[in-house]
Input
Amino acid sequence: MKAIQFNLTIPRYALGLALSKLYYPVLWSGLSCTSMKDMPEPELPGPGWVKIRTRLAGICGTDTSTIGLKTSPYFSPFSESPFTMGHENVGDIVEVGAAAGEWAVGQRVVVNPFLWCATRGYAEADWCEPCQRGENNLCQHYAEGGLRPAIFMGSSRDTGGSWSAFYCAHKANVYAVPENVSDENALMVEPFACGLHAALMDFPADDETILILGAGTIGLVQLAALRALGSRARIWVSARYDFQAEAARKLGADEVLLGGDLYTEVAQRTGAKLYKPLIGKRVVVGGVDRTYECVGGDAALDDAMRLTRAGGTVMVVGMPGLVRGLDWTAIFSQELKVRAAIGYNHAEMLNGKAHRAFQLTLDLMAAEKVDLGGLVGRRYRLEEYKRALKEQGDKKNHPIVKAVFEFPNNHNIM
Output
């Protein structure tokens, strides 16, 4: 089968860093770390696993950061290459291990990609403390147990990834897709669960004014999660492109801040005061009650700290790396509360009850309280991956929220 693989070696890494400054697509040309390979189908890592044939596979910002060699070396102990990429997924079970429970060939499913204690063969009594609490996104055994080091499917040599025709999943990570949930919505379960987790970690009061920085996939699912969970707060979304603004309005943004001076717009709406320091960005006195930083970039992180009022909350949802140009003075002088939200888990508290993020998301979709299928736009065959990566990174000329790889020949497997 064909698969998009990432193979990190020092020569490929160095060549990619050097040449990408001159010609960015070299990063997926085969000269750097990312290329298409002919691979055998993955084998079940154990009897408690299933094999899945891909229907749709999403292209995520985490994927493009990996390809762009922009991820932090912090994660390097928790991965071994080469590995097949892709963690956003929906597909059909084609093989069931002897100890995989009641899963059956032909079921349409989505997979939670985190490779936590249960997937690594630990008995429940031996799970790490976070996994015992249901916080499997904070697993302490990502480099241990019965699998090679990896945090999630799509960075694992053992499971494969959704950027190929087949991948494997442990029974504890598999969720059945209800009949009335489309493939497109099912694909969006994984990113929506990120927004769900960030929202439920510290749910905002209805009288708050919220700023969501970024109207890419993560910013839009953050907005969708807040509204689906019943937030009546005033929510503003900053967007760069008209198509992002349109999507934000449809998902419930009160206002979209598009194309103007973000600092001035926030100050005018909140009554904040702007001051010009000797050098650097403007200083904001006042601002919004809460900011969700959904870009993960240096400038956006700095803006989030500056645009949030004294004593306010900043939620870091976009994955940051080695941050340059972040002035911590705003955090210190305004006594900001800064929290980070990575992924999702099995202990999402709603109405006094703990929920698994994926199941809660599927329930909301089945009840028609969440519909994100419209965000799935441009579709590509896997063989078109070079075009896909180039176009999804060029929002100015290609209005894409969520680009996907489509495997049309995989839909009818029975």
